[in-house]
Amino acid sequence: SGNSQLCGIDAGLHRVGLGNSAACVGRQGHREKREIVASGNGIRKNRLLQQEVERLFGLPVRFRDVEEEAAAGAAMWALAECKEVE
Predict the structure, then answer these.
(1) Average pLDDT over the chain, rounded to an integer
(2) CA-angle at 25, arms to 11 and 60, nearest 5°
(3) Rounded distance, CA 6 to CA 3, Å?
(4) Which long-range contacts does 6-14 make (Cβ < 8 Å, 24+ apart)?
(5) Would you call 37 helix, strand, or coil by DSSP?
(6) Alpha-carbon distances, residue 60 vs 52, 72, 75, 80 (angstroms)
(7) 58: alpha, beta or left, given left = phi > 0 and alpha = psi -120 to 50?
(8) What's the pTM value of the predicted model, to 2 decimals?
(9) Which residues pair with 37 in a beta bridge?
(10) 3-state helix, strand, coil in the chain (%, to 5)
C-alpha cells in the first residue's frame, strides 16, 4: 500500500510538470540550488508529499514562517496598492 501511494504521488508530480522541473534544477541560473521553498497546506500537512518532492529534486523542502501564504501575499499587495493611491 505504501509503495502504491508513492508511485501515485510520483506519477502525479510528473503529470503536473514537476518531473521536468526536477531535471532542470541544477542547470538553471548561476547559483547552486540548496532547497525547495514550498507553500500551501497540501504539501505543508502531507509529510509523504514533502518526502517525495525532496526525493524527486534531491533537495530539502522548506516552508516560510507564514502559514497562510496566499492571505499574507494578498495583504501585502493590498498594502502596496493603498500606498500607491496616497
Answers:
(1) 76
(2) 75
(3) 5
(4) 6/48, 6/52, 9/48, 9/49, 9/52, 10/52, 10/56, 13/52, 13/53, 13/56
(5) strand
(6) 10, 24, 28, 32
(7) left
(8) 0.55
(9) 62
(10) 60, 5, 30
CA 23 to CA 11: how far, in whole Å?
15
51 three-class SS:
helix
- Set of cell numbers at residue 46: 502531507
Sign of CA dihedral 37, 9, 52, 28: negative
Residue 36 has pLDDT above 80, yes or no: yes
Q: What is the pLDDT of residue 13?
A: 63
Residue-wise pLDDT tens digits, 10-25: 666 666 555 555 555 5
